[in-house]
Amino acid sequence: MPRLGYLLPTRERVMEGQPETASLLALAERAEALGFDSVWVGDSLLARPRHDPLTLLAAVAARTRKVEMGTAVLLPALRNPVVLAQQVATLDQISEGRLILGVGIAADLPNIRAEFEAAGVTFDKRVGRMVEGLALCRALWTGQPVEWPVAGKEGRWKVASSVLGPMPHRPGGPPIWVAGAVASARERIGRLYDGWFPNSPGVAEYAPQWADVKQAARAAGRDPEALTGAMYLTLAIDDDAASADKRLNAYLENYYGQPAGVIRQRQMSYAGPAAGAAAWMKSYADAGASHLVLRFAGDHERHLETVSRLRRDLGW
């Protein structure tokens, strides 16, 4: 039975000139009351301005009791990993172990390259920076003195026999789910991380790509069944299919500043009646996705209630 997550509209509210957080926190509370399993926030500094995800999730943690919360997705390459490790450990303590750290490397687009430059980070080195940074975070989350880089290896950061405090609530830190569906990303996820969190594979592609992730875990001597297969989906639900399609296209073009057709090829989206949305979500669950994170093209209260009803109908 898949778990369902809900993405808060942080980017949308900033674009609308409504940066106040009260309504966002109310939506998080509403999602929990309707039975959603997790609440998520996106990340960007300048390319797609929005609230800082870790700060906002601290407020979500204080306003909720059971729902998990995560980043969809955080860009760790933009952050000093020692600072990030402390922030994440603190947030995991505030949430009492409800945090999931979703991470990614960011798409290769001019505004995102400019964002990295503004943060003083070399864009073309972002994969190595992410991998090393997360490894350093995990070392700091052990509670043991950390020497970095590890003997015999080179490293971007220098840590001399230091201990981080506080430790995360979960021993070893929160689970790390990584976005990306290319072969190298799938191999890396299976070898190193706790979950696969893509937004691009169609239903027919999901099962074989998820199998690749699990095979990479198996080859690395890890238990593939301990990994989570997630999926990030965008929906515009409306009884009028044409109206739903128009709404979705307008939403994506406004959000990304690119033609909707281009985005819909890269990010799996649905526009149409509720019954079709239920079947679409179920198809991903049948393909092996055990956690679906949903982004709605506006009208959040109605979408939350509709999906909550669909979930009951599906027996989830």
Structure description:
- It is a single chain.
- The protein has 316 residues and is of the alpha/beta class.
- The chain has one domain (3-314): TIM Barrel.
- It is built from twelve helices and eleven strands.
- The chain has helices at residues 10-15, 22-33, 53-63, 81-94, 110-118, 126-140, 183-192, 203-219, 241-256, 260-266, 274-286, 300-314, and strands spanning 3-7, 38-41, 68-71, 99-103, 146-148, 159-162, 176-178, 195-196, 228-237, 269-272, 291-296.
- It has an eight-stranded parallel β-barrel, surrounded by seven helices.
- The mean pLDDT is 98.
Q: Residue ranges: pLDDT <50 for 5 or more in a row?
A: none
Overall mean pLDDT? 98
Give the helices and strands as they follow along the chain: EHHEHEHEHHEEEHEHEHHEHEH
Based on helices, strands and strand pairing, what is the structural class? alpha/beta
Residues in β-strands, percent: 15-25%
Total individual domains = 1
For this entry, give a set of tags.
alpha/beta; 316 residues; TIM Barrel; eight-stranded parallel barrel; 16% strand; 11 strands; two-stranded antiparallel ribbon
Question: Can you describe this structure in just a few lines?
Answer:
With 316 residues, the chain is an alpha/beta fold.
SSE blueprint:
Layout (H helix, E strand, L loop, with lengths): L2 E5 L2 H6 L6 H12 L4 E4 L11 H11 L4 E4 L9 H14 L4 E5 L6 H9 L7 H15 L5 E3 L10 E4 L13 E3 L4 H10 L2 E2 L6 H17 L8 E10 L3 H16 L3 H7 L2 E4 L1 H13 L4 E6 L3 H15 L2
Parallel strand pairs: 1-2, 1-11, 2-3, 3-4, 4-7, 7-8, 8-9, 9-10, 9-11
Antiparallel strand pairs: 5-6
